[in-house]
Known about the structure:
CATH class of the domain at 3-35 and 69-135: Alpha Beta
Keywords: ATP-binding, Cytoplasm, Kinase, Magnesium, Metal-binding, Nucleotide metabolism, Nucleotide-binding, Phosphoprotein, Transferase
Mean pLDDT: 97
Protein name: Nucleoside diphosphate kinase
Family: Belongs to the NDK family.
Cofactor: Mg(2+)
Subcellular location: Cytoplasm
Bound molecules: adenosine-3',5'-cyclic-monophosphate
Strand content: 15-25%
Amino acid sequence: xxxxxxxxxxxxxxxxxxxxxISRFEKKGFKLVAxxxxxxxxxxxxxxxxxxxxxxxxxxxxQYITSGPVVAMAWEGNDVVAVSREMMGATHPAKxxxxxxRGTYAVDIGRNVIHGSDSVASAEKxxxxxxEEAEFVQWDRTV
Length: 143
Ligand code: CMP
């Protein structure tokens, strides 16, 4: 079954959006298989966002993502990588469709509420930063 890594970012935790965001994925029918409430270290943030290391916004991105707790999650389901990105909306919240998570809650690309893996390969890499294999919970979602 396909898996993705979703992370509710510090701005969303501060604004009390955790429940609504998780609820959207639950109600869609995806299955939560791992979750942690953590504060990223500088090292974790640099590893996660390593592909952006040469971008001008990199230092600010690392500063922001380590500024407070995040909710790190693994979700499973059919086409969960692509569908969850549709549900999140465009990376730049000003371009995100109304009704999507970013379209509903954000306007600033530097405070865009949620991260989701952009491919199955990225999901595998990102999940390995946050979870040990034994932390993925085996259970059946029957409805
Ligand atoms: P995310 O989906 O977590 O993946 C990379 C992140 O980099 C992205 O969301 C934004 O939060 C951030 N980002 C991308 N472009 C910019 C930018 N121009 N300025 C600030 N942050 C950016």
